[in-house]
Design brief:
The protein is built from six helices and six strands; from the N terminus they run ααβααββββαβα. The chain is α+β, with helices and mostly antiparallel strands. It has a six-stranded antiparallel β-sheet. The radius of gyration is 41 Å and the shape is flat.
Length: 215
């Protein structure tokens, strides 16, 4: 009886030893596999995200800077650019619309002291830094933009030193009557420019007078 018990205990002990050995092998294999996974994860190079800069928006000031003065007798030419330029759009106008455009340009150019400026988007006539008329072509039509000088408004702005952004007056040239309206508005714009220049001189004189009186 004792011999049988000893044999059973020995068998159970051997079985436990075998199970322990098998578990040790399984754990070692699992650790090895996990180690490779972790190594693959941590050894993988980290790529920093790339932020693309948004293209700056075109602003009116930039367009003003890009406009260059044209000689009085110089043909209006434009540098090559993606998309349609003013020249491209002008060439696509019908004969009537081209006639309107040419009439307005000639009328503005005849203003005393007027200078012509141009870029890829518009043609413009100015006296000094003040606009007489800006000419554009949109959807096969001629458009004229004006910044009418108002002496009362300019006087108030000059005295109060308030920043005021004036909206443009736009005329769509669809017929001969619209051309006449543009010419009349050019006359108004020129008169406004003359008044603005006179107001500027008056303010300068008042400042000089105040400076002399303060001494």
């Amino acid at each position: 009886m004792l011999d049988k018990i000893i044999l059973i205990v020995a068998a159970v002990s051997a079985l436990f030893s075998l199970l322990s050995f098998i578990m040790t092998i399984c754990i070692a294999n699992s650790a090895k596999k996990n180690g490779k996974v972790l190594k693959a994860i941590f050894d993988k190079p980290v790529v920093a995200p790339v932020c693309e800069k948004a293209a700056p928006a075109l602003v009116e000031a930039k367009e003003e800077a890009s406009a260059t003065e044209a000689a009085p007798e110089e043909a209006v030419t434009f540098a090559a650019d993606k998309g349609k330029t003013l020249e491209d759009k002008y060439n696509e106008l019908d004969a009537t619309a081209k006639g309107y455009y040419d009439q307005i340009a000639a009328y503005a150019a005849a203003v005393e002291g007027a200078k012509r400026f141009k870029n890829l988007r518009y043609e413009e006539y100015k006296i000094g830094s003040m606009r007489i008329v800006r000419m554009l072509v949109k959807r096969d039509l001629v458009y004229c933009e004006f910044m009418i000088q108002n002496s009362s408004l300019r006087s108030y702005v000059a005295e109060s030193k308030v920043a005021v952004k004036q909206a443009a007056t736009v005329i769509k040239v669809v017929d001969a009557a619209a051309v006449d309206a543009v010419k009349a508005t050019i006359d108004i714009a020129v008169k406004g420019i003359e008044e603005a220049k006179e107001l500027k001189k008056q303010i300068a004189r008042e400042k000089r007078r105040e400076k002399r009186n303060s001494k």
